[in-house]
Write a structure and sequence with these properties.
27% of the residues lie in helices and 26% in strands. With 198 residues, it is an alpha/beta fold. The protein has a single domain, classed as 4-Layer Sandwich (Purple Acid Phosphatase, chain A, domain 2), CATH 3.60.21.10. It has a 6-stranded mixed beta sheet, with helices on one face. Strands 4-3-2-1-13 form a 5-stranded mixed beta sheet. β3, α3 (66-73) and β4 (79-81) form a beta-alpha-beta unit.
Length: 198
């Protein structure tokens, strides 16, 4: 399976064109939030992704409201909002959690992660991809001026369940960077996107 992952598009039509071009190589597309700037042209951006005629999974970032993303994606055939949800496709299980990305400890994520653990037990045969807007704490994905400012709750979940891949963003300075927690691959694919083979 070839995934095209991207994040923090922020309404850039130049970046959207690059995503459209790369989508030809991909089986699925994943957006880890902030597709818009405070929802400006959100409907247009999601419609453009829908026109790619491939499964597209999205979560809200700190620039989108989950209710609005849900309403818009419910009208589209190919785009699915996976915020606080599990989504199984072929041999993959996606776990999605969007939102602000500014907190180091997220009680809501801790609560949702219990639901995610139940889903993992149901899908033991599948590879797991965790999609969050906030980056995990103390990695190359969350450093700004040498200081770690990522999410500790997400990092603890990663250490506990050991997903195969983590896709996140939020901190534009780290676009395109990768890291590992033990053997777990962490990717900030940036607005121009990255093809990931699973």
């Amino acid at each position: 399976m070839k995934l095209l992952a991207f994040v923090d598009l922020h309404g850039s039509l130049k970046a959207l064109d690059k995503i459209k071009a790369k989508a030809k190589q991909a089986d699925m597309i994943v957006c880890a939030g902030d597709i818009s700037i405070f929802e400006n042209n959100l409907d247009y951006l999601l419609f453009q992704l829908n026109k790619l005629n491939k499964p597209v999974l999205v979560i809200p970032g700190n620039h989108e409201d989950n209710t609005d993303i849900s309403q818009l994606t419910n009208e589209l055939n190919n785009v699915t909002n996976i915020h606080k949800k599990a989504f199984a496709k072929d041999n993959l299980l996606f776990l999605g959690y969007g939102g602000s990305g500014f907190s180091m400890v997220d009680k809501e994520f801790i609560s949702i992660s219990k639901k995610f653990e139940k889903e993992l037990k149901k899908h033991k045969d599948k590879k797991t991809i965790l999609v969050t807007h906030a980056p995990p704490y103390k990695t190359k994905l969350d450093k700004i001026q040498g200081e770690a400012c990522g999410n500790k709750s997400i990092k603890n979940f990663i250490l506990k369940v050991k997903p195969n891949l983590v896709i996140s963003g939020h901190l534009h300075e780290n676009a395109g960077k990768e890291d590992k927690i033990k053997s777990i691959r962490l990717v900030n694919p940036g607005p121009y996107g990255k093809i990931i083979i699973l």
